[in-house]
Amino acid sequence: MTDGPVRVTIDDLSAEGSGVGRLPDGRAVFVPWTAPGDVARIRVAEDRERWARGELVALETPGPARREPRCPLYGTCGGCRLQHVRYQDQVAWKASRIQESLRRIGDAEIDRPEVEPAPREWGYRNRMSFTLKRLRNGRVVAGLHRFDAPGRVLEIRDECLLPEEGILPVWTALREAWGPGAGALPPGGELRLTLRNAVEGVALVVEGGRPGGDAAGLVEAVEGLVSIAHRPGGAAVATHLAGAPATRDRWFGEEIEVGSRAFLQVNREGGEALHLSVLKELGNPADLRIVDAYCGVGGWGRRLARHGADVVGIELDPAAVAQARAGAPPGFRVLEGRVERHLPGLLPADRVLLNPPRGGLDAAVTEALRRSPVPRVLYVSCNPATLARDIGRLGEGYRIRRVRGFDLFPQTPHVESVVTLDAITVSRTT
Description:
This protein is of the alpha/beta class. The chain contains 9 helices and 23 strands. The chain starts with 5 loop residues before the first strand and ends in a 7-residue tail after the last strand. It folds into 3 domains: 6-66, CATH 2.40.50.140; 89-119 and 267-423, Vaccinia Virus protein VP39 (Rossmann fold), CATH 3.40.50; 127-258, CATH 2.40.50.1070.
């Protein structure tokens, strides 16, 4: 290990948001809370053969990308990693990250894509998840995980700058109302508390623990809290406990029922911009056969069907399937199960829309698309690395038509990408 502090210049950011510099021996060193252009004195905390991890000792010269973070808990809380980087530089770095991932992992040479900034840099999250731990002495700690000790929880009251207006007042009131030892909540050593903001108010989903508590009393005591559901440890679905049995929200021009595990973008305004961009890239849907893979509650499928497409959605989560089917327009049907199971039987198609989780596509999905090329594939991704891997797996049968990024997660390293792929070996309908 290198003895004593060393002086480094930060040249870039890593995928998790740490600054990247070079040690005197040429190895890359990753230093949290530094920004491109910073000249810093660091201490090597983890020494590996080809790289190292450092701790910031002193900032000698701040770089042009640096700014003062707004949150008083920044640097201790593990929720944000980029508040110290100017927002325009966050967006530019995310564009470079998409480009570099596609080049290095997917062997795809593209120009640096446009990344659309978030409509709001702060107050954009419509969903927040907190961890509650009951300690042996009867004390309760509730908040977000610490950066320096992820197994520990940092108390969060009203300091967080990311939630939509409406969530923090409910969170702070809930903390007061749950009583000694958080006795009004279900019993258990550790609970995950997710608050989702909707047009009707805030819905709370408690995950973990055992049945019990006083959910009805909490709904009565906390203004703005409209429902509580509980998914005990090991349970597949949540049980409604109190308040409204179903929470409705407005997305993509229509009201939908938001279940306890429904996936919707955490950034409402940015998610709408992404949604419209995907529809534009799909082209005129009239009379097209479209597969909406990983369709969730069916936001895209519903809209495409209303404009004349024959759409088949595929979704694994039974609750999301039920929500997608409820009130579905003619021309939109949903299959429950894994995409890799259903997709081969739905090909050929005119369009395939892919919106997988962070782990990306199962290899069987890319193989199906290789064997039966689709004129146009839209791939929506929240992970540039798995996106690039999957595009590489598709091989030479597809060309990248367009890449766009959407910054739905300001102050974090995450970025959403939309890639339009056209098949080379089949005629295209545009």
